[in-house]
Amino acid sequence: MSLGNWIAVGVAVAISVLLVTVMHWLLTHQLSKVWVLAQPLVARSRNSAYAAAAVLGVNLAIPDAGGFENPRFWYPLFQHGMRIAMIASLTWLALTIAYAVTDSVLSKLSAYNGDADRRSRRLQTQVKLLRRVIATVIGLLAVAAILFTFPAVKALGAGLLASAGLIGIVAGVAAQSTLGNMFAGLQLAFSDALRINDIIVFEGEWGRVEELTLTNVTLRLWDERRFVLPVSHFTNNPFENWTKQGTSLTSAVMFRVDWEVPVDDVRSEVGEFVTKHPLWDGRNWSLQVTDVLESGLIELRVVATVADSDARWTLAVELREHLVTYIRERFPQSLPRNRTEFTAPETNDNYAAMWPTSAFRRPAGFSQAGPTDGTGTTNDEG
Hints:
Layout: H1 3-29, H2 38-61, H3 74-112, H4 118-147, H5 151-155, H6 157-162, H7 164-174, H8 176-190, E1 199-202, E2 205-212, E3 216-221, E4 226-230, H9 232-236, E5 240-241, E6 249-257, H10 263-276, E7 280-292, E8 298-306, H11 309-330, E9 342-343, H12 351-354, E10 360-361
Helix pairs in contact: 1-2, 2-3, 3-4, 4-8, 10-11
């Protein structure tokens, strides 16, 4: 290349970069108020746009190697490398534009509907998955375009197309698990079975769906751990989705107390506590005796409705603490206890003397000295 060629390359790159700068200025200062995509485009594509402009300017300015009688050995390699760089930079630019468009959609959903809106969360999940699908397709097309810049691969194009059926079968068998996960991810998203920020219980673990991709689901557990599962687990196994139809839940507290507990008094105390609690959503609450246990205790169940899963846990804990204190201080005789009954045998004359401090039940006709003969006198001959 001559000096004039290098000057042409520099001018082409400068013009391309200047055009990108002008476009960014227009998007930032003129179009941002009337076009919602202006700010996301500038934020996402600033670096990729400059890179694509520079590489495109070089490719437009450099002469073709065929125009030289004796080109240097490195020039065809340089020209081929610039073609690959142009494909890569344009792919980067296309990806950033796709992400900018989806960012605008996601921010609008979050701003107008909020994460508590079931429809909003469903659309957010679907948009994020579609973004990953689009990125995958763009990446595959870029790889194919780069491969076809090599003459050997280009010459094999017809043969590759002819054997595409066989290759597809082999690839499908080899990637059966991966493809199954990808289709399972699309099934979860578009069947509305699972959404971003859903609260689910899976295999005894309670967590929030933090990320849903084509292959994995990431759960953020209550203790900040992350539980990563393949999406096929959720299509092949049952799981609880607490926010499938909404975020409202019912908080429940179970209590086991003695039979002597005054249920009406406890119910009044629960009602006063729940109705004044800021986490109660105002729908309903109740206290019921749900079981009589073989151990001699009764089971009380207190339920109260709340707005979301965090409020469900907090209200249950605070209600339990309040009832523990209330029953212990006001009705200590109602605390759980085991009763023991001693029954005096009819043949033991001095049973009461053996257990002077114990309460026991005597059979009919039994006195402290011993069994009577039915006339009020004892059978003690001593």
